[in-house]
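Readers of this paper often ask what the protein records in our data store actually look like. Such a record has a labelled line for the sequence and another for the backbone structure tokens. Nothing more is needed to write down the fold, since each code stands for a local backbone conformation. The record that follows is passed on verbatim for readers who wish to inspect the format.
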Amino acid sequence: MQTTLPYHLYGNYYQGYLFFNFILLKLNFFCLLIAHRDVHTAILRACGLLLRSIILKFIEMATAIYDPYRPLMAAQLWPGDWSGWPTGALPPCLAIARGQAQLGKSGYTLHISRERIHRIDDRATTFAYQPYDSEKLQDLRTKYNFDALLGGNASEITTLAILNDWTRCQWKHGPSKNVNFLQFYAGDIIQRGMRGEQFSCQVAAMTFSQIVSAIGYQARLVSLFPYRGGPQHAVSEVWVNDLAKWVAFDTDFNLYYVSKCGVPLNVLELHKGLLNGRSGDIMVVKGLYRPETFDIEEVSEKPLLLPYYRYFFVDMRNDWMTNVYFRGHPKRSDQATLRWREEGQKKFIDLKPTTNDESELYWPLNQVEIRICEIEINSGFIKLNLVLKTVTPNFERFEIEVNKTEKRSQGSSHLEWWLTPGVNMLSVRAVNKFGVKGSFSYLEIFLQ
């Protein structure tokens, strides 16, 4: 596994890294010490932000030239032969409409009778996912025997709730001390918790994120604030294939939220519920283990945690176990986050990128988009040449089902589909290396 790199290997260049990183760490503390009046505080915050920006820009430029902290490994997101949509690849409805003239000359008619084809958003590739090929990740799964804990028959949301409950049972809440955030590993936290050490919400959320990664799900750290400059809380969001959405889990207080209809909610939905005065429509699902001595969250009466969802930002990586970056590195700085900012809301006095575009924060995973490259007529038979696109962290294969009878798997993004007179059905889904399966895309075509 990669560790902190030896100091002597990089000479003066590496000394420069350490020097600017030291300035970055101490800058805010220095400003707080000397700012004893409001006007001075405002000026110093502005100066501190400018200096911080200069330092981060310098580090970004330096790492672009030479970076001793390059990723050790990265998660495979798609098939090895994927290189983008081929020229002429079209959504099925457009491809069939354009090919109808050619088909008409041969006496054939095609039309789509039913379809559900996901649209893959490339913004999902801006996140750095925990790769499968990590010995520590595999050890985490086997050492604590999560497969036996889960049983294998539960829904995904139930599976995640069980893991959330198990994680929170491993320690008591308290201030975190001497946590290795440079190369965070949940196994170390669990062992220390068993020895009686205490940990805070951020450590709880990061530990849960790595635990769900160990069984094949993707999670991310989300930081919450009730007001600007206020206290911070941290939760995880996990992509749930069954629901085709991100769902927020609060590991520190062992709960998650659902709508009145019972649909689990993500951070943005909780944020909007809070701002729109609809907290009464939000219900809490609590784990069996209750970490507090009183009921921490009764949303309809006096919500104590929900106000933290007023402001939030997402860390754009969860590969802490595998890839090491010093603080201030472009992969471990303000630029490696994304903050939600409502339209018309005042700007934040920091360097975190912001967005009010929901799709930039809530992209889908483990889904498949199908396009038709070519329609061939060969010896009285019709063949569709298809291309499959996915963003599936730790991708392994596609599972394909034709006419509900023929089932096969393949690792390629190219697929040939031979049609027969009558109804033709195709279903495709992505499967990752852990065996976790995404949702189906399907296409039903009638050939006459």
In short: Residues 38-65 form the longest helix (28 residues). The chain is about 30% helix and 25% strand. The first strand starts at residue 110 and ends at 116.
